[in-house]
Amino acid sequence: MILANGAEVIIGLEVHVELKTRTKLFCSCPTTFGQAPNTQVCPVCLGLPGVLPQLNRQAVQLAVRAALALGCRVNPRSKFDRKNYFYPDLPKGYQISQYDQPLAEWGHLDIEGEEGPRRVRIRRIHLEEEAGKLAHEGTNLWTAAASLVDLNRAGLPLIEIVSEPDLRSPAEARAYLAALRTVLSYVDVSDLRMEEGSLRCDANISLRPPGFAGPLEQLPRVEIKNVNSIRNVVRALEYEVDRQAALLDAGEPIRRETRGFDDQSGRTLAQRSKEEAHDYRYFPEPDLPPLVLDERWLAEQAADLPPLPDAVRARLESQGLAPQDARILAADPDAVRYFDAVVAAGAEARQAAVWMLGDLARLLNDRHLGYGASPVPPAELARLIALIGSGRLSGRMAKEVLEVMCETGRGADAVVEERGLNQIADPARLRAEAERVIAEQPKVVADYLAGKERALAFLVGQVMKATRGQAKPDLVNAILKELLEAHRTPASGP
Ligand SMILES: [Zn+2]
User: 42 CA distance to ligand 1 centroid (A)?
Assistant: First the structure.
């Protein structure tokens, strides 16, 4: 994205993902969301003196899965470090993280950028622990009655995924986050619930003025901290692009700083000047040995990965789906599972995709449901498609049936039965209806015979109406044409 003043937008993202382990990263406290405050704590995550952390094996495994899925090189040896800072939600006064020897490095994620495909490099992925949660009573320090601390979240396992500054617009940041979310959902390492804080993002943004040829690190970089939804990341970045561009135009300096995002106003607000790594006094965690991963175990983890979105998209296209449909389905592993089950139940692949992405998607959307929770099981959608294929239902009737299926959870055959919704394809019955309509509409018949083709559509409509939409339209069309032609006297012919 090049701005009107010629500056280029440079964005890098740091995404924090909560891993879905049963217990915390360094103790055996449960990770269940939404429990009463300070009920899921122990001396380790409370940071009491004399306790020792013990690394959660499942967290390591999930982190490695994520790293492999993102094409990273997993370091056979990494280590933990203390990141020291004071904040009331951090009982130990430091966070156990990984500094100079992270778990994994040098991966990438391919996205559809604004000017075509773009490969976003991933610099590193490291393991770290979550902090607690603060709640403030009152609006400022002078009037606050109290500040409350809940340490249930303290010590939850996180990975931080750090991208290189390869994104060039807020829209590309959105595409990157969506693609990242998709990959992580395929490997099933996190609940990915942004509203519960299991996916959070820090965004770094700077503008490269025209003619600037130095290294990107020399640009004054603004970090927007802790944004909790993809939509808000995009809003914050858009605001920041405008703010920095205005400063640049006015010849004012852009300060290197950390800013917060205010959801209400859509603005970013200065919080503090940007801290440097040395501000945190990183040093090796003395209570944990280095993390050494066995090569054979790593190979097993790699072999255990499911097919990833790009491979699935290619497979769907090979089944005959349009690239656009394949892309939409492949973005959601639940949708892919559903699609595969519909096809396994006998539906043709393209038909399955059409019904899933059309009517079913709309009905599920209305109910805020995903494909995984669809009230219409895949085999029933396949049955509905079979009823259309065999001519028992018209497309329009099938739409109605699907709606009832979604509403009631009943099967396709049951709904067709109880509504008496069988398509009428009996030529004798349709001929009788057509003859009656022709007798009732002499003027329209005369119009048709005089060459008004549109009169035929009206007559077809009359037959459809008389059969409550159940007549097979192409058959009605053919029968009417045949009967009307028989009305032509030689004199009225050409
Ligand atoms: Zn604990």
Answer: 4
Q: What is the pLDDT of residue 491?
A: 52
Output the CATH code of domain 427-492: 1.10.10.410
8 Å CB contact between 16 and 199:
yes
Ranges of residues in the chain with a pLDDT under 50 are 492-493
Task: State the Cα–Cα distance between residues 181 and 192, nearest whole angstrom.
Answer: 7
Q: How far is the CA of 82 from the centre of ligand 1 (A)?
A: 18
The residue ranges of every structural domain in the chain are 8-299, 307-419, 427-492
pLDDT digits (tens, 9 = 90+) for 32-89: 988 999 999 999 999 999 999 999 999 999 999 999 999 999 999 999 999 999 988 9
Distance 28 CA to ligand 1 centre (A): 6
Rounded distance from Cα 49 to ligand 1 centre (Å): 13
How distant, in Å, are the alpha carbons of 210, 406, 435 from that of 350? 48, 21, 38
Q: How far is CA 1 from CA 78, 184, 337, 451, in A?
A: 37, 27, 37, 58
Query: 193-227 burial, b for 16+ CB within 10 Å, e for fewer?
Result: ebeebbbbbbbbbbbbeeeeeeeeeebebbbbbeb
DSSP 90: -
Interval between CA 96 and ligand 1 midpoint (Å)? 14
| Residues within 5 A (CB) of ion ligand 1 | 27, 29, 42, 44-45
For ligand 1, the distance from its centroid to the CA atom of residue 261, given in whole angstroms, is 31
Residue 153 Cα, ligand 1 centroid: separation in angstroms? 9
- Token pair listed for 315: 């497979």
Q: What is the rounded CA–CA span in Å between residue 67 and residue 125?
A: 7
Mind listing the pLDDT tens digit for each residue in 321-335?
999 999 999 999 999
What pTM does this model have? Answer: 0.82
